Amino acid sequence: MHITVKNLLAIQNNIKDHLKALNIKSHSKIIAVSKTFKIDKILPLIEYGHLNFGENKVQEAVEKWTEIKKTNSEIKLHMIGKLQTNKVKFAVKLFDYIHSVDSEKLAKKIADEQNKINKRIKIFLQVNIGDENQKSGVHKKEVNDLIYYCKQIDLDLVGLMCIPPANTDPEIYFAEMKELGHVLGLNELSMGMSSDYLKAAEYHSTYVRIGSSIFGQRL
Prior knowledge:
Number of strands: 8
Strand content: 15-25%
Helix content: 40-55%
Shape: globular
Largest sheet: 8 strands, parallel
CATH superfamily: Alanine racemase
C-alpha cells in the first residue's frame, strides 16, 4: 500500500476514533489537498478510490486534472484557493466545488459562466472569521447579505468555509462557524487542515482540507 493511502486511512481512523470517544455522530470527508504535487504522487489515491481533491490555482488544476476527470467522472475537485474573476471561466468547467466565494462580483461571474455551460457548482462562502485584514473572506456581519445575493442569482450555496487565524486555538472559531451556519441555514462547513482537523471534526465540519499529513511536506 502506497504511503499516501496509508496516511489517508490513518487520518480517517483518527477522525472516526476521536468522534466515537466524544460520542459525536457526525462525519467529516477528507479533501486531499494536492496543490503543488505532481500527478504521480496523486495517482495512488485515485487508484485506491479516493474522490475528493483540492487545488488552489486554476491553471495548475487544469493541467493536472482535465484528462483524469474525463475518465474518472466520480472525482470531485474542490477549488480551495482565492479565485480571480478572470479565471472563473476555466474554474467552472473543471471544478465541482468552489470554497472561496467572498464577494458579489465573484458570485455573479460564477453564475454567468456556469449558466453558459449548463452546470451547477456547489458553493461555499469564505468567512473571514478572525477579522484579519490580510485574509480573504466576507466579514461575518456581511455574510447574510451575500447569501441573499447568491440565492437571487441561483447559485447552489451549500455552506461556509473558514481559515482561522494562525497560531491561535481554532476551537472558538470552529464553534462560531458552526453556530453561524446553523443560524443562516447552511448545513455544510469546510474547515480544518492538517494541524487542527480533529477539532474541526468535533464541530461538524463536512470537509477537512488536508495536504501535508497525506502527501508530506511540499518542496
